[in-house]
C-alpha cells in the first residue's frame, strides 16, 4: 500500500495546479441550495473529482467525505479522507488570490494527517499526528504573542444570514480588544496562518469537517491550541472553532462567552 502522506500531497498539488490553471479564466458558477452567497464553480467539482480519483486508486477500501458530494467506493471504513477541493471559493470566483486545497485523514475517529496546499504561493502546509507541522519542509511554530491587545486575529463568516449576524457580535468585540482582525475567506488558510505564527488566533462558527480537518491538526502540531467556543476539546464535527497560539486562547474563549 502506498504511503498516506505521499498520496495526499500529490493529490493536493495536482488539484492545486488544476485550480491555479483555471484561475482568472472563464468557468461556470452555480449557487448551492438556492442561496445567493454559497457558490460552487465547475473548478471545485473538477478538483474534487481529481482528488477522489487519486485517493480511490491508492486506497480503494477507504471512505471519503468530500464537500461537493463525491464519495469513495466504500461507505464505511476505519479510514476516512476528508476533502475540501477548493477552500475559498468566493475568493476564487472573484479573482481574489487566497484559496487552497485541504485534505485530512481520520483513522478511527482521530485526524492523523493534514495537508493544505495554496497553489498561488506554492505553500504546502502539512502535519502528521505526533510528527509536527511543516511548511514546505520547514518546521512550524505558533507565535509567542501573549495578550489579546498584542494579537492579530482572523475570522470568517458563514454563508447563512443567522451565522453572519451571530459572528458580527463577536467581530465587534474582538475589534475593540485585539491589535487587529483579518478575514481571508479561507478557513483552512486561516488555520495554517495560526500554525505558522502569521496570525495569533482564529475563530469561526458553523464550519464543516472539510474546512477544519487538516488545518486543526496543523495548528495542534505547531504547538497551538484548538477547542470549541466553550474551550472544550475540539471535534471537526461540532462546527465552532477557536484555534490559537495557546497564550491568547482563554482570553478569546472569554470574549466568545460574552465576558
Ligand atoms: C468557506 C471558507 C470561508 C469560511 C466559510 C467556508 P468554501 O469554505 O472557508 O473562509 O468563512 O465558512 O464555508 O465554501 O470556500 O469551501
Ligand atoms: Ca471550505
Ligand atoms: Ca470548498
What can you see in these coordinates?
It contains seven helices and 14 strands. It is an alpha+beta fold and 259 residues long. It folds into two domains: 138 residues, Fructose-1,6-Bisphosphatase, subunit A, domain 1 (Fructose-1,6-Bisphosphatase, Chain A, domain 1); 109 residues, D-Maltodextrin-Binding Protein, domain 2 (3-Layer(aba) Sandwich), CATH 3.40.190. A seven-stranded mixed sheet has the order 3-4-5-6-7-8-9, sandwiched between helices. Strand 5 and strand 6 form a beta hairpin. Helix 1 runs antiparallel to helix 2 and helix 5 runs parallel beside helix 6. The chain is globular. The mean pLDDT is 95. It binds D-MYO-inositol-1-phosphate (IPD) and calcium ion (2 copies). The site of D-MYO-inositol-1-phosphate has 14 residues, from strand 4 and helix 3. D-MYO-inositol-1-phosphate binds next to strand 4 and helix 3.
Amino acid at each position: 500500500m502506498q504511503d498516506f502522506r505521499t498520496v495526499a500531497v500529490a493529490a493536493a498539488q495536482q488539484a492545486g495546479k488544476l485550480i491555479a490553471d483555471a484561475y482568472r479564466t472563464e468557468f461556470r458558477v452555480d449557487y448551492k441550495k438556492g442561496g445567493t452567497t454559497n457558490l460552487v464553480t465547475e473548478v471545485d467539482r473538477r478538483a474534487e473529482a481529481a482528488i477522489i480519483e487519486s485517493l480511490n486508486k491508492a486506497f480503494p477500501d477507504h471512505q471519503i467525505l468530500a464537500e461537493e458530494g463525491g464519495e469513495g467506493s466504500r461507505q464505511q471504513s476505519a479510514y476516512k479522507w476528508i476533502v475540501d477541493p477548493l477552500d475559498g471559493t468566493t475568493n476564487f470566483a472573484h479573482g481574489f488570490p487566497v484559496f487552497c486545497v485541504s485534505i485530512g485523514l481520520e483513522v478511527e475517529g482521530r485526524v492523523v494527517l493534514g495537508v493544505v496546499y495554496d497553489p498561488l504561493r506554492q505553500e504546502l502546509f502539512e502535519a502528521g499526528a505526533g510528527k509536527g507541522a511543516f511548511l514546505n519542509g520547514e518546521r512550524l511554530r505558533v507565535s509567542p504573542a501573549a495578550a489579546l491587545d498584542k494579537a492579530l486575529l482572523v475570522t470568517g463568516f458563514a454563508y447563512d444570514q443567522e451565522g453572519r449576524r451571530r459572528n458580527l457580535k463577536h467581530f465587534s468585540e474582538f475589534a475593540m480588544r485585539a491589535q487587529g482582525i483579518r478575514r481571508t475567506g479561507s478557513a483552512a488558510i486561516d488555520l495554517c496562518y495560526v500554525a505558522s505564527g502569521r496570525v495569533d488566533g482564529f475563530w469561526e462558527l458553523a464550519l464543516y469537517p472539510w474546512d477544519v480537518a487538516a488545518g486543526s491538526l496543523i495548528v495542534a502540531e505547531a504547538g497551538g491550541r484548538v477547542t470549541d467556543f466553550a474551550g472544550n476539546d475540539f471535534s471537526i464535527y461540532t462546527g465552532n472553532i477557536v484555534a490559537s497560539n495557546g497564550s491568547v486562547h482563554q482570553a478569546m474563549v472569554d470574549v466568545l462567552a460574552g465576558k
